[in-house]
Amino acid sequence: MPNRHAPALLAFALCIITLAVNLQAPLYITYADFSGRGAAATAVAFSGYVLGVLPVLLALGGLADRVGRRPLILAALGLSMLATLLMLRTPSLETLGVARLFLGLGTGLASATATAYMGELMAGSDSSRAANWVTASTSLGFGLGAALTSLFLLAGPSLTPGSFHLQLLLAFIAIVLVWRLPDPRPAQRTAMLRLPCYPAGSLAYGFAILLAWACVGLVIALLPGILRQHGLSAWSGFSTFCVISCGLLFQPMARRLPSAQATLLGLAILPCSYALLAWGADSGALHAVLFGAVAASSACYGFIYLGGLAAVNQLAGSEKTRASAGFFLLAYMGFSLPVIFTGLLSDALGARVALIAFGAVLLTGCLIVAAMLHLSARKQRVEAAC
């Protein structure tokens, strides 16, 4: 197989791995109804994903160097198929939690090595180009799964829509293709335990993606229940697609900006877009939900995701794998913990109070992280002048 096709095949595999992650999103409220649970329980099941991600990012940072890059991508594809098979066999909120644990484990394996592997397959390209390919393929996948399920559900209600079977087929094809990919970096006898690291100046980018993915997690896990109050449940999968995959439209613009400027622009957009989205969900204004989701996606998966990951890889030097793990560790913490707390607040005080409280914390966080980035940039200018 010509090496020139290798980056595209890896991008396809990453897209299929992440496609499985939100495949069940439009059915969350249905699973909760069958289990007799509320928003908090749904958020906990949703956050089972992070229980799978954390062990990989915290304790298995050296796994890619020890066994190679390709085996981790193959394992991630296999775990995505296992999770989908579980949901086909026993669709329930409890099974969802287990399935999302497997999905988190697989995504953690892929995230910890994807950028480094893509850079090696590109043989000589700069790290920002590899990061661009990874962010584009994963952004598309994370949103496409929910949209596919919503499309299949338009034909009629089902706990096992055709999108589940389609994911299994695509994942099998991806395994066959990845099996033939080269693994340019030979396996090394390195320590298995390699904790995530945060190179100087990178922590602010990690906090930025934490805030961004907290917003995404809320849309995926809790928005379907809020939309159902206004008879808009059928649009939950499309809102997930909008808040994730539409960020692709803004990535070319983000690439033309320095990483710090791209991230700051995303931090400026994020609270404004969330305010529009939350108002639309609370009032039943579908156009506001979708426009707000697209605007939020420009920040979450356009400017902040791409700008932050590129910056971290530039700052990391030879520690790209550990630095990427640190970046994604904060991202996935944002993806889960704020969603659980917001779900608890929603059950206790109502969806409107929960949305307002989340928005206040989001705005405060964006202001603090923006200040951190400004201070870091000023420090770099002073050091360069000296």
From TrEMBL:
Subcellular localization: Membrane
Pfam family, one: MFS_1
InterPro entries: MFS, MFS_dom, MFS_trans_sf, Sugar_transporter_CS
Keyword terms of this UniProt record: Membrane, Transmembrane, Transmembrane helix
Boundaries of every Major facilitator superfamily (MFS) profile domain copy: 1-386
Membrane spanning residue stretches: 39-60, 72-91, 97-118, 130-152, 164-182, 203-226, 232-250, 262-281, 287-312, 324-345, 351-373
Name of the featured protein: MFS transporter
